[in-house]
Amino acid sequence: MAARAAIGLAVSAALVVAMLGTATRGFSALTTDTARALAVAATPVTVPAIGLLDMHGAAHTVRDDRRSTIVDFIYTRCVTVCSALGGVYQSLQAEIRARGLESQVRLLSVSFDPVWDTPKRLGPYADMMHADPAIWTIATVADSNALPAVLQAFGVRVIDDGVNGFVHNAALHVVDPDGRLVAILPFDAIGEALEVAEMHWRARTNRR
Question: Which are the contacts of 202, defined by CB distance < 8 A and separation ≥ 6?
Answer without folding.
Answer: 104
